[in-house]
Every structure is written in C-alpha cells, then in structure tokens.
Amino acid sequence: MRRSFVDILERNADHAEAFQFSFDDLQEDQHPEVVSVSCSDSRVLHDHVWGNDEPGHVFTCSNIGNRVTQRGASGDVVSGDVLYPVEHTGTETVVVMGHTGCGAVTATYDALSHGLSDLPGIEYCLELLKPHVEPGVEALPDGLDRSAAVNHLVEYNVDQQVSVLRDCDEIGDTVDVIGVVYDFQGVYGGRRGEVHVINVDGERSVEALREAYPQIDSRIDRLWTY
Question: Any known ligand binding at 99?
C-alpha cells in the first residue's frame, strides 16, 4: 500500500476526532442550504473554498467541467446530483463554480479549435461540454493566447450551465442559481483563491449585478461580455 494513502488515512483520524459529535442532528436526513457544483480538480478544494466545516451545510457535487447535465436515454438532462437536494431536501441556492486554468475546458477548446485533445480518456465529458463551449469559441475576442482563451471560456461554460438550470422546470423561480469562478491564477486581479461572481440567474452584466447586490459588489467581476 502506498504511503500517500496511509498518510491521508492517518489525517482522517484527526477529522474523526474533531467531527465525531457533529452528526447528531444529521443521522437520518439533511437539509443543506447550498448546492455547489465544482470541477473535479486537485487544485480546487471544494468545501474548503467556502470555508465549510459544518456537515449538512453545503451539498457538494464535482465532475469534469463543473457540468450540470448528464446523458439520458432521450438526450441530455439535468444531473440527479443537482436535482436531488433541490427537489428533496429543500435547498434553494445552486452555485456553479468553474475555475481558472480548467483542464476540461482546455481539452474542449483544443478539440473544437484544433481537432485534438491532450487529455485522453475523458471523451464522454468532452462530448457533454462541447455543445456548451463551441459557441463561445466562435465568439472569442481576437488576439487571445491559449491561456486567456481558456479562461474566457471558463466563464462562458459557467454561463451555459447556469442557463441550463434556469431553463429546467424542476428548478423553480424560488431557487437562486449563481455562477462563479474560483481564481487560483490571479487572473481577476484579486488574491489567488478568491471566488468571483459572474452570473446570477442569467444576469451577466457586472454593472447590473453590482447594483443589485451591493453587499458583494467587490466580488462581482468578469473577464468579458459577449
């Protein structure tokens, strides 16, 4: 057995010691306040991003490309791991969190623009992302290098995932759908590790969002509009 697993198992002992009495009210059910859909990436510490140390507070989903869809028998549908907490536990806030330097968006961009991918083995995920990212590739501003293009498309992908949720009949009007980008590259000019709000219920205008939500105006920003 590799030492890497032994190490994390030993750290779990500290976790168990700290949390052993945190589950008393959660033995039979849960009522998380927020669903967070994140990208599967070792650089994105999904719960830690939110400072979450409270079991039952955040329902965390992760997959390649922070997608909210899966392929069903009749086509793409909203994933059950997103719908479950909304429909069955009363959660009224869904956050779609992309991140700078996203490998899934990079692979999708390369596949769409050059017909290749340097990330073999994730073809299924790319096929789900391509329809959402392809219009963004065509709309990219001129003169962007590959890294900048990818980070623009990270925003575009988040926007598209928010749109899918807003168009879903099971996601009612009382549910807030918020799109954000986790920036560990410092692209947005703030501290690395900050989350920047780019979309709320389909509204993408930075000015409109800052006016509507002055309590978080310093955390609302975008790299581009289209």
Answer: yes
- 61 annotated as ligand-binding: no
Amino acid at 191: R
**Model-level pTM?**
0.94
Query: Which CATH number belongs to the domain containing residue 165 in this structure?
Result: 3.40.1050.10
How many domains is the chain partitioned into structurally? 1
Per-residue pLDDT tens listing for the chain (226 residues): 999 999 999 999 999 999 999 999 999 999 999 999 999 999 999 999 999 999 999 999 999 999 999 887 777 889 999 999 999 999 999 999 999 999 999 999 998 887 765 555 678 888 889 999 999 999 999 999 999 999 999 999 999 999 999 999 999 899 999 999 999 999 999 999 999 999 999 999 999 999 999 999 999 999 999 9
- Print the domain residue range for 113: 68-73+84-226
Tell me if 39 is assigned to a ligand binding site: yes
CA gap 48, 211 in Å, rounded: 29
Give dist(CA 99, CA 44) in Å, integer.
8
Residue 198 lies in a domain: yes
89 vs 131: CA distance, rounded Å: 31
